[in-house]
Amino acid sequence: MAGQTFDVVVVGTGPGGYVSAIRCAQLGLSVAAVEDDRPGGVCLNWGCIPTKALLRNAEVVHLFHRAEEFGIKVSGFEADYAEAVRRSRRVADRMAKGVEFLFRKNKITLVPGRGVLKSATTVEVTGSSGTTTLEGRAVILATGSEPRSLPGVTIDEKRVLSSNGAVRNEARPASLIVIGAGAVGVEFADVYSAYGTAVTVLEALPRIVPIEDEEVAAQLTRIFNRRKIETKTGVKVQSVTASDKGVTVATDAGTFEAEQVLMAVGRAAKVKDVGLDRLGVQMDRSFVKVSPMMETSVKGVYAIGDMAGAPLLAHKAMAEGVVAAEAIAGKSPRPVDYGNVPSCTYCRPQVASIGLSEAKAKENGRAIAVGKFPFTASGKAVALGDTDGFVKVVADKTTGEILGVHILGPEATEIIHEFAVGRTLEATLEEIIHTIHAHPTLSEAALEATLAALGQAIHL
Amino acid sequence: MAITKVVMPKLSEAMETGKIIKWLKKEGDRVNGGDILAEVETDKADVEMEAFGGGVLRKILVPEGDRAPVGAMIAVIAEPGEDIATVVAGASGAQAQGAPGGNGKAAMAGQAGGASPRETDVARPRGGGIERSEARERAGEAREPVSSNDRIKASPLAKKVAAQSGVDLRLVHGSGPGGRIVRKDVEAAHTTTGAGVPQGRVPAPSIGAATGPEFEDRPLSQMRAIIAKRMPLSKAPVPHFYVSSEVAMDRAWELREELNGLEGQPKISVNDFVVRACAIALLHHPGVNASFQGESIRVYHRAHIGIAVALDDGLITPVLRDCHAKSLGQIAIESRDLAERARARKLRAPEMSGATFSISNLGMFDVTEFSAIINPPEGAILAVGTVRKVPVVDESGLGVGRRMMLTISCDHRVMDGAMGARFLQDVKRLLEEPLRLLV
């Protein structure tokens, strides 16, 4: 397969890479996709999808504990964590096969191996069967990111785990310290805690889920603490020492000990050994600098997804993949609207948000109106028995522009999208309240919070 | 290619219907953007209507001699193969509704036709004074104002921001899908192009025109807000007050005779002197060159002067733009041309609106003095009497002098007596020391 020529060569088949490859194919371009792991990238194999499977298990376990509340007597049930991990692997396998199927369907050539950019149109792929060279009229780089650690802390995936290790770790520890309370940290805290691990979450910033609205973080902290998940915020980790027996984490707020530590302090773009230096591709700090059409400083070379900058989210990568593909095909796609990317965390209760937090909106000097509606007042949430949380709408007082929405609660990550669509269409509070929301649904809370912003909430 | 719906353009503020005098293109003729499609008679003038968007004139919907309400579809331009049946059907349905009463309902034609993204619901008056923007050309979208009754594709937020900032959405170029106007388009229009000014006020490009913003909106002071609220109650809708002054026209008269004695120079009238003096004075008294806008006072930085021209059956006030940047000779030539074309009803639409100040001169009727009614939204109008010989007393005793009465009518919501008086004082000084008008 040496010296094959394609219209587009995509390096990396995570959510950004595979979506861009498929979109290119849809637009009639011939595509080669290079992957040194399994198609689907971190998202499908080690991140989004398998963790959602684990969280579903955690939820089922949680419901078993609550069975009596529903009048169901369960005696002596056993929650096998290893089986939860195995189920999660099966889910990931199935999704990865799905990507392989989509590649076949779209006649995309999957080239296994590690792709390195040799020129603006050449990618050298080194795989188990040797080295081959692919020529592309355009190249899309989508190499993604990998878990970061703290300085001086080595991830051995035995005592000190990354999310990559944790997601396939069948041996659940009796105790766990999670360093970092972002989405990854609180999701694993939720899973392990549900299965009986004593979990302590350490966060350097003043609150957990630090990018979310303050009120959301405060209430999630209360809910976690009620479930005996310990949260320590504003804590600086000084050292992490692994021994045969466990791990000791020294901080400015005392020493913590546990069987294992999960490092969840963020992810770093994979930009080394991709061939960027050789071509003089410009960087923006640790990310590749790109145009709104996702093109790098080198003409014909595009970069998308985690390597192209924050937020490091699969759905943002997919959106960028579409833009890059359409730009290459000579269309003029609308650039990604980075101000309108939903942020979702799948712990229980879920956290979802879009746009500005209340504090940020105030900082921007706008006169704002805030509407909040608790799920305790939602008929559907009460029927489900999931009444923790609320919907909070932050709007511009004079125009009714929806500046930000913050949801903590059941299916928050599904409810958020009506606001995403609304913001794309530049709907104001009025358009939301003139939209009939089915009863009874959790989405009614979105309507009520919007009404509350106008001082018109009915069920409050 | 796009289907272009040609609609009856709104050629003046008051225009409700227009009559097709003559179609200059026949069905089946190829037309290019800028070609003159038809002559349209409005309440004030006969106007040539340009095509916007090229193609073949596929269908004429309003025959010669018939009237159509503003915004109603009057023709369709499209490529030969294109299916225009739906568009035409939409128009005839709407026309049937609106035509009998001519009450403007047919202006909904654009909506009934189902405005698809590539359709452009516009026709524009010739010499419309609106530059084609590169962005629009690229996007193939219209920026010309669509009739006020046509549906404007804009986001709810864009509409609110436009309403709050006074931006006319008809003048905003939409950057969203299918030319949909979104918030940032309105904001851009508000800060850069002054799209808040209705169509007619967009100044025609003219040599020597001053650069810088067309106007600024000054917030109302507390007192001004109260005056603004109360004055209309005393004399609705515009509370007038009047200030008069007598001007010694001896030197201006001599200068005029001297100038008119020069060969190859345009003949200059007394009124041209007055126009020139007002233009200079208006720039020094921006408070007079201003318009009441409800929440603010719009102060113009250009002097666009309306010059009242009597017609047999009424009055029309063509606008001489950027008078402050024009010499006496230029003013003489252009105002004569405007007056002649006004009488012949051959004015173009932009020449009939957008004045920041007006002058009404009844000197030719030997009127000594009179007061004029303000032409809203202008803030003032100057009434000019005849130049008459009167006995005057100076150091040397009794003599004969030429005197002219000026009376300015002012909108009290915009200005007070002293402001009007100071302006008039300046006009008087300029006319009494007329060499100032030449420099």
Protein model, in words:
The complex is a heterodimer of chains A (460) and B (439). Chain A has 460 residues and is α/β, with parallel strands linked by helices. Chain A contains 15 helices and 24 strands. In chain A, α3 (48-65) runs antiparallel to α4 and α3 (48-65) packs parallel to α6. The model of chain A has no long low-confidence stretch (mean pLDDT 96). In chain B, α4 (156-165) packs parallel to α5 and α8 packs across α9. Chain B is an alpha+beta fold and 439 residues long. Chain B contains ten helices and 20 strands. Chain B has a six-stranded mixed β-sheet with strand order 11-20-19-18-14-17. In chain B, strands 7-2-4-5-9 form a five-stranded antiparallel β-sheet, with no helix packed on it. The relative contact order of chain B is 0.11. Chain B starts with a strand and ends in a 7-residue tail after the last helix. Mean pLDDT of chain B is 77; it is low at 93-149 and 193-209. In chain B, a hairpin with a 2-residue loop joins β15 and β16 (314-316). Chain B has helices at residues 85-98, 109-112, 134-139, 156-165, 183-193, 222-234, 250-261, 270-284, 328-343, 417-432, and strands at 4-7, 17-23, 30-31, 36-41, 46-50, 55-60, 67-69, 73-78, 124-125, 215-219, 240-248, 290-292, 296-300, 305-307, 309-311, 314-316, 319-320, 357-361, 380-394, 397-411. Chains A and B meet through loops of A and α4 of B.
